[in-house]
Amino acid sequence: MKKIVFALGLLTLLISNCSKKQNKPILNYIEEPHSFSLPNEAVITHMDLDINVDFDNEIIQGKASYLIKNNEASQIILDSKFLTIEHVQADGKDTTFSLGDFDEQLGNPLKIDINKNTKRITVFYKTTDQTEALQWLKPQQTTDKKFPFLFTQGQAILTRTWIPIQDSPQIRITYNAKVHVPSQLMAVMSAENPKEKTSNGHYTFKMAQPISPYLIALAVGDIEYKAISDRTGVYAEKSMVEKAHYEFSDMENMVASAEALYGKYAWEQFDVIVLPPSFPFGGMENPRLTFATPTVIAGDKSLTSLIAHELAHSWSGNLVTNASWDDFWLNEGFTVYFEMRIMEALYGKDRANMLARIGRQDLEEEIEGFKDTPDDTKLKLNLKGRNPDDGMNSIAYDKGYLFLRTLEEKAGREKFDIFLKNYFQTHAFSTINTEKFIAFLNENLLEKHDIVFNTEAWVYNAGIPDNQAIISSDKFETVEKTIQQYVKSNSIDKALTIDWTTQEWVHFVRNFPNDIKTEHLAMIDEVFNLTNSNNSYIAMVWYEQAINHDYHGNNIDVKIEEFLIQVGRRWYVSTIYKAFKRHNKTDVALAIYKKARANYHSVTTNTIDDLLGFKQD
Asked: Is the pLDDT of residue 1 over 80?
């Protein structure tokens, strides 16, 4: 009898232990080198943000409160960089915390003591003057020059510099926010947004779909909204609203074209805010509210492929996200492919192929730049110990695109489209790494249709495999004939260029003969006045060529300096500064940079500081 009782007791204990183990969350986050967080121990799932935006002192102050999934942990770790942590609560009561050793790239681990039953933590904090995500602009640095402006830039690992958070792309959260700003300004976020200013400067936001922390974004300024359709519209400073509305008037058609390709748009609203010129990127795909540079406002819709690109991120990047920054190509390669398909659907194959050819030329330049570090030309990277910004280049974008385009040509577009739509639907609102993608590709496309493809060579080897798709453009061939004609006859028939798109002009300028003489550049400038182009892309490539060939006509030195002071888009300014450095004119570049640097976001200054060897006094 005692043996039976003992056996029953042991069985009860085993059942009890099994029940406890079943109740313990099973978490499967990968090891991520760019975050201190240990999400398999305790992970955030929802954020309630309550902050005050103080323009006088240029700080954000408030609290970030998180619901957590707690795997019976005694500690939860957040990422924090250049933040002042005032105090921390666990389930409404003060708890102990500590900041670990500072890492130049990653900041500090914020270690918060909890118990196995803790469900919520709250961090009271404020930003500092070192906060890298925020750019505070004086009125004179804005377009309308009447009120100050603030915007954030979180990608890749800068959200931790304005919110203490588990700053890893594989951690997806929903969020609500209360934001308090001066009454004459409006606040907008990557969330459900107001269309008009409130009377008291208090705004509330809700992001119901889970997103990665780098996509949490805030902008505050004297802005207005104008709808394009029921689900699309633009925000901008007053003097820019009509221009932006015209330039982006095809946004609804873009959304409809994207949905026809790869399934329903999952974020309800697709709006764009045109930021001041210091914004460091062409665009940033913050869900529901893309941030965009004013350099795409050309007056002829010729640069709106950028909007198609950011829209495509609503599927590749926002809906299905790279699990780590080593897998960044899964965001950008897919997005460039999707962008080209949208552009083809709306504007025809010629336009899409011109864009793709320019991307192919960019890729060739990038590969040449990495000739001493060929591992950086692999799609799957190893960025441990490095800034993930190091992987944000043409390899991820254009090699990633070329891989997918080559795969499409091998499989056939119909099969490839079915595969991509299935990929987005299967992995919606989740993250994926390269290895899981390859497994999914093998099972759902290659093996399914008995297709042999060198996937591993594309992903894990340096350079470009020999079976790459060849991208051709009849329009670019015409441009090249025009260049040849000019070289032979020393004259240009202006009539040949009347209907040229921006892409044709860029191809024309970028493909001048290496031995072109300054007098020939002067003639081209006299005919087309490229030095004073209102199209920032054409101006950028022209200024690069002027530096390459030591051309100083038409007051171009002044125009280059003005361009570098006014524009903060990293790609544009770094291209020009690189040209100065390449031709031993670093002293000229530094003289301009010292004037321009205060107008740049930290994303741009970090790049140019390193490029020019600049150190602040």
From this structure: no
